[in-house]
Amino acid sequence: MKVALGQFAVSKDWKDNAETCVRLMKQAEAGGADLLVLPEGILARDITDPDIVLKSAQSLDGPFMTQVLEASRGSALTMMTCIHVPSGSGRVFNVLVTVRNGAIVSQYRKLHLYDAFSAKESTNVQPGSEIPQILEIAGLKVGVMTCYDVRFPELARRLVVDGAEVIILPAAWVRGLGKEAHWEVLVTARALENTCYMVAVGECGERNIGASMVVDPLGVAVVRAGETPALVFADIDPARIAHARSVLPVLANRRFARPELALDDAAQIEAA
């Protein structure tokens, strides 16, 4: 599988971001990619307005997704990104959408909200309550997570136990003391401890670090982007996954059962 990582600085205007998304889709397809991954929260970004996720949120049949779906029609390229969608409760869901040939083939509502480092994502965002499904892309099984999810190893392990060979991570990783190191360590750890590929794509710009990367099942970063807009490509090699799982059989050697979403948490989320 050939994957394209498209990092960019999200603007305040969804129309500009839709144009960027469509342009990157065309470039990724021209580059032979099977999968394009874009950052988290690409409808709108304004570091001076913490409520922009509420003001800019659109339904999945709104104008942003309509434009993206139309651009994907007739293409074999799969695209993943995250947008904010009204929840009907005064907040929004942070939804990771997978698009292929004019249709949304899956959606995942972010489980772990970024209530850390003086931020409080849950003020405007309602958490999801379901483990993301495993998808098949170009013959490989793919799981997804969103940004802050990467700090919770249970989700990555659950995805891999469910069959994932590749985990996709759109993000908007905020700058800060040590934060770039956190990003690299966490992405690498999730790949190495699960002997899977991690495809992590970050937004760049004033607030966020960019630093998109692909890490292979033995913890090797096979491609990296810097802090500016970029489209980079990487090959996901099934033989590398098989080799890693042969020489480092942590999945076969594990002593713990499959992680489950806590029932009390799910019940509280549903009631929120």
UniProtKB/TrEMBL annotation:
Source organism, top-level taxon: Bacteria
PROSITE patterns tied to this protein: CN_HYDROLASE, UPF0012
InterPro entries in alphabetical order: C-N_Hydrolase (IPR003010), C-N_Hydrolase_sf (IPR036526), De_GSH_amidase (IPR047999), UPF0012_CS (IPR001110)
Residues in CN hydrolase domain copies: 1-238
CDD domains registered for this protein in UniProt: nitrilase_3 (cd07581)
NCBIfam families named among the record's database cross-references: de_GSH_amidase (NF033621)
Family classification: Belongs to the carbon-nitrogen hydrolase superfamily. NIT1/NIT2 family.
Protein name, per record: Deaminated glutathione amidase
Organism of origin: Microvirga puerhi
